[in-house]
Specification:
By secondary structure, this protein is of the alpha+beta class. The protein has nine helices and 30 strands. It has six domains: 81 residues, Beta Barrel (OB fold (Dihydrolipoamide Acetyltransferase, E2P)), CATH 2.40.50; 71 residues, OB fold (Dihydrolipoamide Acetyltransferase, E2P) (Beta Barrel); 74 residues, Beta Barrel (OB fold (Dihydrolipoamide Acetyltransferase, E2P)); 83 residues, OB fold (Dihydrolipoamide Acetyltransferase, E2P), CATH 2.40.50; 80 residues, Nucleic acid-binding proteins (OB fold (Dihydrolipoamide Acetyltransferase, E2P)), CATH 2.40.50.140; 94 residues, OB fold (Dihydrolipoamide Acetyltransferase, E2P) (Beta Barrel). Helix content is 18%, strand content 39%. It has a five-stranded antiparallel β-sheet with strand order 3-2-1-4-5. A hairpin with a 2-residue loop joins strand 26 and strand 27. 22% of the residues are buried.
Length: 560
Protein backbone atom coordinates (compact mmCIF):
# COMPACT_ATOMS: atom_id res chain seq x y z
CA UNK A 1 0.00 0.00 0.00
CA UNK A 2 2.82 2.43 0.86
CA UNK A 3 4.61 1.58 -2.29
CA UNK A 4 1.58 2.50 -4.37
CA UNK A 5 1.35 5.86 -2.57
CA UNK A 6 4.99 6.77 -3.29
CA UNK A 7 4.60 5.89 -6.95
CA UNK A 8 1.59 8.15 -7.20
CA UNK A 9 3.48 11.03 -5.56
CA UNK A 10 6.43 10.61 -7.95
CA UNK A 11 4.08 10.60 -10.94
CA UNK A 12 2.41 13.78 -9.67
CA UNK A 13 5.73 15.51 -9.16
CA UNK A 14 6.85 14.43 -12.66
CA UNK A 15 3.69 15.75 -14.23
CA UNK A 16 4.09 18.99 -12.27
CA UNK A 17 7.61 19.44 -13.59
CA UNK A 18 6.41 18.96 -17.15
CA UNK A 19 3.68 21.49 -16.64
CA UNK A 20 6.15 24.17 -15.40
CA UNK A 21 6.93 27.03 -17.90
CA UNK A 22 10.41 26.66 -19.33
CA UNK A 23 12.09 29.70 -20.99
CA UNK A 24 11.79 29.93 -24.76
CA UNK A 25 14.92 29.95 -26.90
CA UNK A 26 15.52 33.47 -28.29
CA UNK A 27 14.38 35.24 -25.15
CA UNK A 28 16.12 37.14 -22.36
CA UNK A 29 16.31 35.33 -19.00
CA UNK A 30 17.76 36.15 -15.60
CA UNK A 31 20.72 34.20 -14.26
CA UNK A 32 23.21 34.12 -11.42
CA UNK A 33 26.99 34.02 -11.69
CA UNK A 34 28.13 30.88 -9.89
CA UNK A 35 31.76 30.88 -11.00
CA UNK A 36 34.38 32.84 -12.97
CA UNK A 37 37.09 30.77 -14.60
CA UNK A 38 39.26 30.61 -17.73
CA UNK A 39 38.07 34.04 -18.95
CA UNK A 40 34.45 33.02 -18.73
CA UNK A 41 31.56 33.42 -16.32
CA UNK A 42 29.43 30.36 -15.52
CA UNK A 43 25.82 31.43 -15.12
CA UNK A 44 22.92 29.45 -13.68
CA UNK A 45 19.80 30.44 -15.59
CA UNK A 46 17.53 28.11 -13.58
CA UNK A 47 15.62 25.12 -14.77
CA UNK A 48 18.78 23.18 -14.03
CA UNK A 49 20.49 24.94 -16.95
CA UNK A 50 23.95 26.51 -16.89
CA UNK A 51 25.83 28.35 -19.58
CA UNK A 52 29.14 30.09 -20.18
CA UNK A 53 29.73 33.74 -21.29
CA UNK A 54 33.09 35.34 -22.19
CA UNK A 55 34.05 38.01 -19.67
CA UNK A 56 34.56 40.59 -22.46
CA UNK A 57 30.80 40.62 -23.00
CA UNK A 58 30.44 42.21 -19.56
CA UNK A 59 32.77 45.11 -20.41
CA UNK A 60 31.97 48.44 -22.03
CA UNK A 61 34.26 49.54 -24.89
CA UNK A 62 37.63 50.53 -23.49
CA UNK A 63 36.79 49.34 -19.96
CA UNK A 64 37.57 46.21 -17.84
CA UNK A 65 34.85 43.57 -17.24
CA UNK A 66 32.65 44.32 -14.22
CA UNK A 67 31.37 40.93 -13.02
CA UNK A 68 31.69 38.81 -9.82
CA UNK A 69 30.33 35.56 -8.37
CA UNK A 70 26.83 36.09 -6.99
CA UNK A 71 25.90 38.88 -9.45
CA UNK A 72 22.51 38.57 -11.09
CA UNK A 73 22.57 39.30 -14.80
CA UNK A 74 20.27 39.07 -17.78
CA UNK A 75 21.38 36.91 -20.69
CA UNK A 76 19.96 35.93 -24.03
CA UNK A 77 19.07 32.21 -24.35
CA UNK A 78 20.14 31.19 -27.80
CA UNK A 79 19.77 27.43 -27.22
CA UNK A 80 18.68 25.32 -24.23
CA UNK A 81 21.39 22.72 -24.76
CA UNK A 82 24.54 22.29 -26.83
CA UNK A 83 26.65 19.23 -27.48
CA UNK A 84 28.07 19.41 -23.98
CA UNK A 85 24.63 19.67 -22.39
CA UNK A 86 25.08 23.34 -21.53
CA UNK A 87 22.79 26.25 -22.37
CA UNK A 88 24.05 28.59 -25.10
CA UNK A 89 23.69 32.11 -23.68
CA UNK A 90 24.96 35.61 -24.54
CA UNK A 91 25.23 38.70 -22.36
CA UNK A 92 25.94 40.90 -25.38
CA UNK A 93 22.77 39.89 -27.17
CA UNK A 94 20.77 40.45 -23.98
CA UNK A 95 22.24 43.92 -23.67
CA UNK A 96 21.40 44.57 -27.30
CA UNK A 97 17.77 43.56 -26.89
CA UNK A 98 17.53 45.65 -23.75
CA UNK A 99 19.23 48.57 -25.49
CA UNK A 100 16.94 48.40 -28.53
CA UNK A 101 13.86 48.57 -26.29
CA UNK A 102 15.30 51.56 -24.48
CA UNK A 103 16.50 53.30 -27.68
CA UNK A 104 13.19 52.85 -29.48
CA UNK A 105 11.43 54.55 -26.60
CA UNK A 106 14.00 57.40 -26.61
CA UNK A 107 13.67 57.76 -30.38
CA UNK A 108 9.89 57.93 -30.11
CA UNK A 109 10.13 60.56 -27.37
CA UNK A 110 12.88 62.49 -29.23
CA UNK A 111 15.21 62.16 -26.26
CA UNK A 112 18.98 62.11 -26.14
CA UNK A 113 20.84 58.87 -25.51
CA UNK A 114 24.24 58.26 -23.98
CA UNK A 115 26.99 56.44 -25.78
CA UNK A 116 30.70 56.24 -26.48
CA UNK A 117 32.61 56.34 -29.77
CA UNK A 118 34.75 53.20 -29.92
CA UNK A 119 35.75 52.63 -33.53
CA UNK A 120 36.33 54.17 -36.93
CA UNK A 121 34.65 52.90 -40.08
CA UNK A 122 34.34 54.13 -43.65
CA UNK A 123 32.50 57.43 -43.66
CA UNK A 124 32.33 57.84 -39.90
CA UNK A 125 32.54 56.11 -36.50
CA UNK A 126 30.86 53.36 -34.45
CA UNK A 127 29.13 54.27 -31.20
CA UNK A 128 28.18 51.94 -28.32
CA UNK A 129 24.78 52.96 -26.98
CA UNK A 130 24.82 50.61 -23.99
CA UNK A 131 24.64 47.38 -25.93
CA UNK A 132 23.52 48.52 -29.37
CA UNK A 133 26.03 49.70 -31.96
CA UNK A 134 25.16 52.83 -33.94
CA UNK A 135 26.75 54.60 -36.89
CA UNK A 136 27.97 58.19 -36.47
CA UNK A 137 28.58 59.83 -39.91
CA UNK A 138 31.70 62.00 -40.15
CA UNK A 139 29.55 65.04 -40.93
CA UNK A 140 27.63 64.59 -37.67
CA UNK A 141 30.63 64.53 -35.32
CA UNK A 142 30.94 68.29 -34.83
CA UNK A 143 29.68 71.59 -36.18
CA UNK A 144 32.99 71.92 -38.04
CA UNK A 145 35.12 69.20 -39.68
CA UNK A 146 37.14 67.24 -37.10
CA UNK A 147 40.70 66.41 -38.13
CA UNK A 148 41.59 64.39 -35.02
CA UNK A 149 38.83 62.39 -33.31
CA UNK A 150 41.25 60.83 -30.80
CA UNK A 151 40.12 62.93 -27.80
CA UNK A 152 36.50 61.86 -28.44
CA UNK A 153 37.16 58.09 -28.44
CA UNK A 154 35.73 56.19 -25.42
CA UNK A 155 34.25 59.34 -23.93
CA UNK A 156 30.65 58.96 -22.72
CA UNK A 157 28.55 61.75 -24.18
CA UNK A 158 25.02 62.43 -25.41
CA UNK A 159 23.83 61.67 -28.95
CA UNK A 160 20.66 62.29 -30.91
CA UNK A 161 19.12 59.35 -32.80
CA UNK A 162 18.49 60.39 -36.40
CA UNK A 163 17.21 57.07 -37.77
CA UNK A 164 16.79 53.47 -36.57
CA UNK A 165 15.56 50.20 -38.09
CA UNK A 166 15.40 47.25 -35.64
CA UNK A 167 14.77 44.66 -38.32
CA UNK A 168 17.95 45.60 -40.14
CA UNK A 169 19.81 46.46 -36.94
CA UNK A 170 20.57 49.94 -38.24
CA UNK A 171 20.93 53.03 -36.00
CA UNK A 172 22.27 56.44 -37.11
CA UNK A 173 23.13 59.03 -34.47
CA UNK A 174 24.41 62.61 -34.38
CA UNK A 175 26.68 64.40 -31.96
CA UNK A 176 26.49 67.59 -34.01
CA UNK A 177 22.74 68.02 -33.35
CA UNK A 178 23.44 68.07 -29.60
CA UNK A 179 26.25 70.60 -30.03
CA UNK A 180 24.18 72.84 -32.29
CA UNK A 181 21.29 72.86 -29.85
CA UNK A 182 23.60 73.66 -26.97
CA UNK A 183 25.45 76.15 -29.11
CA UNK A 184 22.23 77.88 -30.14
CA UNK A 185 21.23 78.32 -26.50
CA UNK A 186 24.67 79.60 -25.63
CA UNK A 187 24.77 81.91 -28.65
CA UNK A 188 21.39 83.38 -27.78
CA UNK A 189 22.60 84.09 -24.25
CA UNK A 190 25.91 85.65 -25.38
CA UNK A 191 24.31 87.67 -28.18
CA UNK A 192 21.72 89.03 -25.78
CA UNK A 193 24.58 90.61 -23.81
CA UNK A 194 26.27 92.15 -26.88
CA UNK A 195 25.55 95.54 -28.41
CA UNK A 196 26.75 97.11 -31.66
CA UNK A 197 29.76 99.34 -31.07
CA UNK A 198 30.82 97.37 -27.98
CA UNK A 199 34.50 96.42 -27.59
CA UNK A 200 35.03 92.79 -26.58
CA UNK A 201 37.88 90.34 -26.22
CA UNK A 202 38.00 87.14 -28.22
CA UNK A 203 40.22 84.28 -29.36
CA UNK A 204 41.02 83.60 -33.02
CA UNK A 205 39.57 80.14 -33.75
CA UNK A 206 39.95 79.83 -37.49
CA UNK A 207 41.51 81.76 -40.37
CA UNK A 208 40.23 81.77 -43.96
CA UNK A 209 41.14 83.71 -47.09
CA UNK A 210 38.36 86.22 -46.47
CA UNK A 211 38.78 86.73 -42.73
CA UNK A 212 38.98 85.11 -39.28
CA UNK A 213 36.44 83.62 -36.86
CA UNK A 214 36.80 84.93 -33.34
CA UNK A 215 35.32 83.10 -30.33
CA UNK A 216 33.63 85.62 -28.06
CA UNK A 217 32.95 83.08 -25.31
CA UNK A 218 30.59 80.55 -26.83
CA UNK A 219 29.68 82.42 -29.97
CA UNK A 220 31.80 83.13 -33.05
CA UNK A 221 31.98 86.41 -34.90
CA UNK A 222 33.46 87.05 -38.35
CA UNK A 223 36.31 89.50 -38.59
CA UNK A 224 36.44 90.26 -42.31
CA UNK A 225 39.83 90.90 -43.88
CA UNK A 226 38.75 94.43 -44.88
CA UNK A 227 38.00 95.26 -41.24
CA UNK A 228 41.32 94.07 -39.82
CA UNK A 229 43.37 97.16 -40.62
CA UNK A 230 43.10 100.44 -42.48
CA UNK A 231 45.87 99.29 -44.80
CA UNK A 232 45.51 96.62 -47.49
CA UNK A 233 45.73 93.08 -46.04
CA UNK A 234 46.39 90.39 -48.65
CA UNK A 235 45.74 87.50 -46.24
CA UNK A 236 44.51 87.49 -42.61
CA UNK A 237 47.51 85.39 -41.56
CA UNK A 238 49.67 88.49 -42.10
CA UNK A 239 48.41 89.99 -38.84
CA UNK A 240 46.58 87.18 -36.99
CA UNK A 241 47.33 83.65 -35.80
CA UNK A 242 45.08 80.90 -34.44
CA UNK A 243 44.78 81.02 -30.66
CA UNK A 244 45.69 84.69 -30.46
CA UNK A 245 43.65 86.90 -28.12
CA UNK A 246 42.43 90.10 -29.77
CA UNK A 247 40.28 93.11 -28.96
CA UNK A 248 37.51 93.68 -31.49
CA UNK A 249 34.51 95.92 -31.92
CA UNK A 250 31.02 94.56 -32.59
CA UNK A 251 30.04 96.18 -35.90
CA UNK A 252 26.74 94.44 -36.58
CA UNK A 253 24.52 91.79 -35.00
CA UNK A 254 21.89 89.91 -37.03
CA UNK A 255 19.30 88.87 -34.43
CA UNK A 256 17.64 86.40 -36.83
CA UNK A 257 20.69 84.50 -38.06
CA UNK A 258 22.79 85.20 -34.93
CA UNK A 259 25.66 86.35 -37.15
CA UNK A 260 28.09 88.82 -35.68
CA UNK A 261 30.37 91.08 -37.72
CA UNK A 262 33.54 92.28 -35.98
CA UNK A 263 36.21 94.88 -36.71
CA UNK A 264 39.71 95.66 -35.49
CA UNK A 265 40.53 98.76 -37.48
CA UNK A 266 37.56 100.55 -35.91
CA UNK A 267 39.53 100.62 -32.66
CA UNK A 268 42.37 102.50 -34.39
CA UNK A 269 42.58 106.08 -35.60
CA UNK A 270 41.34 106.50 -39.15
CA UNK A 271 44.32 107.79 -41.20
CA UNK A 272 41.88 109.31 -43.71
CA UNK A 273 40.97 112.00 -41.19
CA UNK A 274 44.34 113.68 -41.88
CA UNK A 275 44.81 112.87 -45.58
CA UNK A 276 43.80 116.32 -46.84
CA UNK A 277 46.29 118.07 -44.58
CA UNK A 278 49.16 115.64 -45.05
CA UNK A 279 48.89 115.27 -48.83
CA UNK A 280 48.01 118.61 -50.50
CA UNK A 281 47.33 118.60 -54.24
CA UNK A 282 50.37 118.75 -56.56
CA UNK A 283 52.76 117.68 -53.78
CA UNK A 284 55.17 114.80 -54.38
CA UNK A 285 55.47 111.92 -51.92
CA UNK A 286 57.24 108.59 -51.75
CA UNK A 287 55.08 105.45 -51.71
CA UNK A 288 55.19 101.68 -52.14
CA UNK A 289 53.45 99.77 -54.94
CA UNK A 290 51.04 97.30 -53.30
CA UNK A 291 49.00 95.99 -56.21
CA UNK A 292 49.11 96.10 -60.02
CA UNK A 293 46.05 95.79 -62.27
CA UNK A 294 45.31 96.22 -65.96
CA UNK A 295 44.14 99.78 -65.37
CA UNK A 296 46.93 101.01 -63.11
CA UNK A 297 48.88 100.49 -59.89
CA UNK A 298 47.96 101.06 -56.25
CA UNK A 299 50.54 102.92 -54.18
CA UNK A 300 50.51 102.99 -50.39
CA UNK A 301 51.40 106.43 -49.03
CA UNK A 302 51.13 105.21 -45.44
CA UNK A 303 49.42 102.26 -43.72
CA UNK A 304 45.72 102.64 -44.51
CA UNK A 305 46.10 105.26 -47.24
CA UNK A 306 46.41 104.03 -50.80
CA UNK A 307 46.10 105.87 -54.06
CA UNK A 308 45.66 104.78 -57.65
CA UNK A 309 48.11 105.69 -60.38
CA UNK A 310 45.96 105.26 -63.48
CA UNK A 311 47.72 103.73 -66.48
CA UNK A 312 47.32 107.06 -68.32
CA UNK A 313 49.32 108.82 -65.57
CA UNK A 314 52.23 106.37 -65.45
CA UNK A 315 54.46 107.40 -68.34
CA UNK A 316 54.78 110.27 -70.80
CA UNK A 317 55.85 107.98 -73.61
CA UNK A 318 54.63 104.41 -72.89
CA UNK A 319 50.98 104.69 -73.86
CA UNK A 320 49.83 101.13 -74.53
CA UNK A 321 51.99 99.23 -72.05
CA UNK A 322 50.74 97.11 -69.11
CA UNK A 323 51.45 98.83 -65.76
CA UNK A 324 53.44 95.77 -64.68
CA UNK A 325 56.10 96.66 -67.26
CA UNK A 326 56.56 100.11 -65.76
CA UNK A 327 56.49 99.36 -62.01
CA UNK A 328 56.70 96.22 -59.86
CA UNK A 329 55.05 95.21 -56.58
CA UNK A 330 56.83 96.49 -53.44
CA UNK A 331 58.79 99.02 -55.52
CA UNK A 332 59.22 102.46 -53.94
CA UNK A 333 58.20 105.29 -56.27
CA UNK A 334 57.71 109.05 -56.20
CA UNK A 335 54.14 110.11 -56.98
CA UNK A 336 52.25 113.39 -57.22
CA UNK A 337 48.84 113.93 -55.60
CA UNK A 338 46.41 114.81 -58.40
CA UNK A 339 43.03 114.55 -56.69
CA UNK A 340 41.52 113.59 -53.30
CA UNK A 341 37.94 112.37 -52.83
CA UNK A 342 37.47 112.31 -49.06
CA UNK A 343 33.93 110.91 -49.25
CA UNK A 344 34.91 107.97 -51.43
CA UNK A 345 38.30 107.62 -49.70
CA UNK A 346 40.15 107.81 -53.01
CA UNK A 347 43.43 109.45 -53.95
CA UNK A 348 44.42 109.88 -57.58
CA UNK A 349 48.18 109.86 -58.06
CA UNK A 350 50.48 110.56 -60.97
CA UNK A 351 53.82 108.96 -61.69
CA UNK A 352 54.77 110.81 -64.86
CA UNK A 353 54.11 114.19 -63.21
CA UNK A 354 57.19 113.67 -61.05
CA UNK A 355 59.29 113.81 -64.23
CA UNK A 356 59.54 116.66 -66.74
CA UNK A 357 57.47 116.49 -69.89
CA UNK A 358 59.96 115.12 -72.46
CA UNK A 359 58.36 117.24 -75.21
CA UNK A 360 59.02 120.39 -73.18
CA UNK A 361 62.61 119.29 -72.60
CA UNK A 362 63.04 118.52 -76.31
CA UNK A 363 61.61 121.91 -77.34
CA UNK A 364 64.10 123.64 -75.05
CA UNK A 365 67.05 121.52 -76.15
CA UNK A 366 66.25 121.42 -79.88
CA UNK A 367 64.53 124.63 -81.08
CA UNK A 368 62.95 124.75 -84.52
CA UNK A 369 65.64 124.66 -87.23
CA UNK A 370 68.00 122.49 -85.12
CA UNK A 371 69.49 119.40 -86.72
CA UNK A 372 68.89 116.08 -84.91
CA UNK A 373 69.87 112.47 -85.48
CA UNK A 374 67.83 109.35 -84.77
CA UNK A 375 66.93 105.81 -85.75
CA UNK A 376 64.01 105.00 -88.05
CA UNK A 377 61.54 103.30 -85.67
CA UNK A 378 58.61 102.83 -88.01
CA UNK A 379 57.65 103.40 -91.63
CA UNK A 380 54.02 104.19 -92.50
CA UNK A 381 52.13 105.23 -95.60
CA UNK A 382 52.39 108.88 -94.59
CA UNK A 383 55.99 109.12 -93.42
CA UNK A 384 58.85 108.02 -91.14
CA UNK A 385 58.93 107.92 -87.33
CA UNK A 386 62.36 108.78 -85.94
CA UNK A 387 63.45 107.92 -82.36
CA UNK A 388 64.74 111.01 -80.51
CA UNK A 389 66.22 111.87 -77.11
CA UNK A 390 63.85 111.40 -74.18
CA UNK A 391 62.35 108.20 -75.62
CA UNK A 392 60.03 110.17 -77.91
CA UNK A 393 59.44 110.06 -81.66
CA UNK A 394 59.38 112.67 -84.37
CA UNK A 395 57.69 112.29 -87.73
CA UNK A 396 59.03 113.11 -91.18
CA UNK A 397 56.05 113.54 -93.52
CA UNK A 398 56.28 112.25 -97.09
CA UNK A 399 56.38 115.83 -98.34
CA UNK A 400 59.45 116.54 -96.20
CA UNK A 401 61.62 113.70 -97.48
CA UNK A 402 63.01 115.18 -100.73
CA UNK A 403 62.94 118.29 -102.89
CA UNK A 404 63.28 116.41 -106.12
CA UNK A 405 61.36 113.13 -105.65
CA UNK A 406 57.74 112.46 -104.83
CA UNK A 407 57.29 111.33 -101.21
CA UNK A 408 56.06 107.85 -102.23
CA UNK A 409 59.27 107.36 -104.21
CA UNK A 410 61.63 108.94 -101.67
CA UNK A 411 60.37 106.76 -98.76
CA UNK A 412 61.47 103.64 -100.59
CA UNK A 413 65.08 104.61 -99.82
CA UNK A 414 64.59 104.08 -96.06
CA UNK A 415 64.23 101.01 -93.82
CA UNK A 416 63.82 100.37 -90.11
CA UNK A 417 67.03 100.81 -88.14
CA UNK A 418 68.51 103.42 -90.49
CA UNK A 419 70.14 106.30 -88.64
CA UNK A 420 69.12 109.55 -90.32
CA UNK A 421 69.54 113.26 -89.78
CA UNK A 422 66.71 115.74 -89.98
CA UNK A 423 65.79 119.33 -89.10
CA UNK A 424 63.23 120.17 -86.40
CA UNK A 425 60.45 122.02 -88.19
CA UNK A 426 57.80 122.15 -85.38
CA UNK A 427 57.28 121.02 -81.75
CA UNK A 428 53.71 120.93 -80.40
CA UNK A 429 54.04 120.22 -76.66
CA UNK A 430 50.29 120.06 -75.98
CA UNK A 431 49.64 117.54 -78.73
CA UNK A 432 52.96 115.78 -78.05
CA UNK A 433 54.02 116.02 -81.70
CA UNK A 434 57.38 116.74 -83.30
CA UNK A 435 57.60 117.44 -87.02
CA UNK A 436 60.93 116.83 -88.76
CA UNK A 437 62.22 117.47 -92.26
CA UNK A 438 64.98 115.61 -94.05
CA UNK A 439 64.85 117.67 -97.25
CA UNK A 440 65.56 120.84 -95.26
CA UNK A 441 69.02 119.57 -94.25
CA UNK A 442 70.75 121.26 -97.20
CA UNK A 443 68.63 124.38 -97.05
CA UNK A 444 65.80 125.35 -99.39
CA UNK A 445 67.39 125.54 -102.84
CA UNK A 446 64.22 126.80 -104.43
CA UNK A 447 63.88 129.65 -101.94
CA UNK A 448 67.54 130.55 -102.44
CA UNK A 449 67.20 130.46 -106.24
CA UNK A 450 64.05 132.54 -106.48
CA UNK A 451 64.67 134.70 -103.43
CA UNK A 452 64.51 137.96 -105.44
CA UNK A 453 62.07 136.78 -108.09
CA UNK A 454 58.49 137.95 -107.88
CA UNK A 455 55.45 137.58 -110.02
CA UNK A 456 55.84 139.90 -113.04
CA UNK A 457 59.63 139.82 -112.96
CA UNK A 458 61.52 139.38 -116.26
CA UNK A 459 64.27 136.75 -116.00
CA UNK A 460 66.62 135.05 -118.43
CA UNK A 461 66.47 131.24 -118.63
CA UNK A 462 68.41 128.54 -120.52
CA UNK A 463 66.59 126.09 -122.78
CA UNK A 464 67.42 122.54 -121.63
CA UNK A 465 64.98 120.43 -123.67
CA UNK A 466 62.58 120.74 -126.62
CA UNK A 467 59.29 118.83 -126.35
CA UNK A 468 56.08 118.61 -128.36
CA UNK A 469 54.09 120.53 -125.77
CA UNK A 470 56.65 123.22 -125.07
CA UNK A 471 60.22 123.75 -123.90
CA UNK A 472 61.99 122.92 -120.62
CA UNK A 473 64.11 125.69 -119.19
CA UNK A 474 66.41 126.18 -116.19
CA UNK A 475 66.87 129.12 -113.86
CA UNK A 476 69.56 129.01 -111.17
CA UNK A 477 69.44 125.21 -111.19
CA UNK A 478 65.64 125.09 -110.90
CA UNK A 479 63.73 123.43 -113.74
CA UNK A 480 60.55 124.94 -115.23
CA UNK A 481 58.43 124.29 -118.29
CA UNK A 482 57.00 126.82 -120.78
CA UNK A 483 53.90 125.50 -122.46
CA UNK A 484 53.45 125.77 -126.21
CA UNK A 485 50.70 128.41 -125.84
CA UNK A 486 53.11 130.62 -123.86
CA UNK A 487 55.95 130.53 -126.40
CA UNK A 488 54.73 133.61 -128.32
CA UNK A 489 51.94 136.20 -128.59
CA UNK A 490 51.76 135.34 -132.25
CA UNK A 491 50.05 131.94 -132.75
CA UNK A 492 52.23 131.21 -135.79
CA UNK A 493 55.35 131.57 -133.64
CA UNK A 494 54.15 129.18 -130.92
CA UNK A 495 56.47 126.45 -132.24
CA UNK A 496 58.89 124.69 -129.87
CA UNK A 497 61.19 123.80 -132.78
CA UNK A 498 62.14 127.44 -133.31
CA UNK A 499 64.23 127.12 -130.12
CA UNK A 500 67.39 125.16 -129.60
CA UNK A 501 68.94 123.66 -126.46
CA UNK A 502 71.27 126.24 -124.93
CA UNK A 503 69.30 129.25 -126.16
CA UNK A 504 68.94 132.05 -123.65
CA UNK A 505 65.52 133.66 -123.66
CA UNK A 506 63.82 136.35 -121.58
CA UNK A 507 60.55 135.30 -119.94
CA UNK A 508 58.02 136.84 -117.61
CA UNK A 509 57.32 135.16 -114.21
CA UNK A 510 53.57 134.47 -113.99
CA UNK A 511 53.60 132.44 -110.75
CA UNK A 512 55.92 131.48 -107.87
CA UNK A 513 54.64 128.19 -106.30
CA UNK A 514 56.72 127.39 -103.20
CA UNK A 515 54.74 124.22 -102.48
CA UNK A 516 55.30 122.57 -105.87
CA UNK A 517 58.62 124.41 -106.15
CA UNK A 518 57.86 125.58 -109.67
CA UNK A 519 58.05 128.92 -111.48
CA UNK A 520 55.30 129.79 -113.93
CA UNK A 521 57.06 131.33 -117.03
CA UNK A 522 55.72 132.81 -120.25
CA UNK A 523 57.27 134.49 -123.34
CA UNK A 524 53.79 135.50 -124.46
CA UNK A 525 53.14 137.35 -121.17
CA UNK A 526 56.47 139.20 -121.57
CA UNK A 527 55.59 140.34 -125.09
CA UNK A 528 52.14 141.53 -124.03
CA UNK A 529 53.61 143.42 -121.09
CA UNK A 530 56.23 145.09 -123.32
CA UNK A 531 53.53 146.15 -125.77
CA UNK A 532 51.45 147.74 -123.05
CA UNK A 533 54.46 149.58 -121.74
CA UNK A 534 55.38 150.90 -125.24
CA UNK A 535 51.86 152.10 -125.92
CA UNK A 536 51.76 153.97 -122.63
CA UNK A 537 55.10 155.61 -123.26
CA UNK A 538 55.05 156.40 -126.97
CA UNK A 539 51.40 156.89 -127.84
CA UNK A 540 48.31 154.99 -128.68
CA UNK A 541 47.48 153.28 -131.94
CA UNK A 542 44.10 154.99 -131.75
CA UNK A 543 45.76 158.42 -132.47
CA UNK A 544 46.77 157.29 -135.97
CA UNK A 545 50.22 155.79 -135.23
CA UNK A 546 50.62 152.17 -136.22
CA UNK A 547 51.86 149.51 -133.78
CA UNK A 548 55.02 149.23 -135.85
CA UNK A 549 55.65 152.95 -135.51
CA UNK A 550 55.21 152.80 -131.77
CA UNK A 551 57.48 149.78 -131.34
CA UNK A 552 60.05 151.36 -133.65
CA UNK A 553 60.08 154.51 -131.58
CA UNK A 554 60.38 152.44 -128.45
CA UNK A 555 63.32 150.49 -129.83
CA UNK A 556 64.98 153.69 -131.01
CA UNK A 557 64.54 155.19 -127.57
CA UNK A 558 66.15 152.16 -126.03
CA UNK A 559 69.12 152.36 -128.36
CA UNK A 560 69.69 156.02 -127.57
Amino acid sequence: MAQNTSMEEFEALLNESFEMDTPNEGSVVKGKVIAVEAGQAIIDVGYKMEGRVDLKEFANPGEAPDIAVGDEVEVYLRSAENARGEAVISREMARREEAWDRLEKAYADDQRVEGAIFGRVKGGFTVDLGGAVAFLPGSQVDVRPVRDAGPLMGLKQPFQILKMDRRRGNIVVSRRAILEESRAEQRAEVIANLTEGQTVEGVVKNITEYGAFVDLGGVDGLLHVTDMAWRRVNHPSEILSIGETVNVQVIKINKETHRISLGMKQLQEDPWDLVGAKYPLSTVHKGRVTNITDYGAFVELEPGVEGLVHVSEMSWTKKNVHPGKIVSTSQEVDVMVLEIDQAKRRVSLGLKQTMRNPWEVFAETYPEGTEVEGEVKNITEFGLFIGLDGDIDGMVHLSDLSWDERGEEAIQSYKKGDVVQAVVSEVDVDKERISLSIKALGGDKFAEAVGGVKRGSIITVNVTAIEEGGVEVEFEGMKSFIRRSDLSRDRAEQRPDRFSVGDKIDVRVTNVDSKSRRLGLSIKAREIAEEKEAVQQYGSSDSGASLGDILGAALKGDNE
